[in-house]
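Hi all, posting the design record for the shared folder.

TITLE: backbone redesign
STEP: 1 of 1
STRUCTURE INPUT:
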């Protein structure tokens, strides 16, 4: 205590406690990259205070607006999987890599965009261009609408996933169905019997029975 000149454990009984000043909280890299006309909203809080976030429009976003590229760490294995987000892969130097985002300081705001469950709620398509992944709007997005994404047709084929099609206008023809040699049904691990939406997820998952097989 500078007032009585004593070194104390805890607060000074004569002059009281110190006034504690906290550092300013700095947003993560991913949150700082969010465009000014988008906002993050907490949709759910799970066990351990885990926040489930969504990206929402603050004003009208025109059709054919491109976002990206997606920022993540290239990895041969998927170390972070969230069932509400898209799994992304790219071709780099002849190899196929996951775009992994283990935490908010390794990616940009696009890591918060949730996947579309059907074509009605889909507002974005994800696709690969020159070794990078971009998201582009497939229809005008109204204020307070959540941005949700699914694979473009060619990228769905690359990811061995089913395609979701958007038909917003009567003069737009539906895209042809994607035909692949791989089935579009869920991929099931032969050891633990867990089901996965794509082959990439099946290939990367850590099976608890692998060492026994």
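Okay, here is what came back for every position:
SEQUENCE:
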């Amino acid at each position: 205590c500078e007032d009585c000149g004593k070194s104390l454990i805890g607060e000074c009984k004569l002059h009281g406690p110190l006034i504690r000043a906290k550092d300013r909280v700095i947003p993560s890299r991913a949150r700082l990259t969010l465009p000014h006309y988008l906002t993050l909203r907490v949709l759910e809080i799970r066990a351990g205070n885990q926040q489930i976030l969504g990206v929402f429009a603050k004003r009208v976003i025109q059709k054919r607006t491109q976002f990206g590229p997606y920022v993540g760490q290239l990895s041969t294995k998927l170390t972070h999987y969230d069932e509400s987000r898209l799994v992304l892969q790219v071709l780099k130097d002849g190899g196929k890599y996951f775009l992994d985002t283990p935490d908010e300081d390794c990616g940009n705001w696009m890591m918060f965009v949730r996947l579309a469950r059907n074509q009605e709620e889909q507002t974005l398509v994800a696709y690969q261009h020159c070794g990078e992944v971009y998201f582009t709007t497939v229809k005008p997005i109204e204020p307070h609408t959540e941005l949700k994404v699914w694979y473009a047709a060619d990228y769905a084929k690359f990811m061995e996933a089913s395609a979701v099609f958007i038909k917003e206008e009567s003069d737009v023809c539906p895209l042809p169905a994607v035909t692949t040699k791989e089935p579009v049904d869920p991929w099931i691990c032969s050891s633990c019997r867990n089901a996965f939406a794509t082959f990439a997820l099946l290939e990367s998952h850590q099976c608890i029975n692998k060492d026994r097989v």
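COMMENT: The longest helix spans residues 153-158.
Let me know if anyone wants the other runs.
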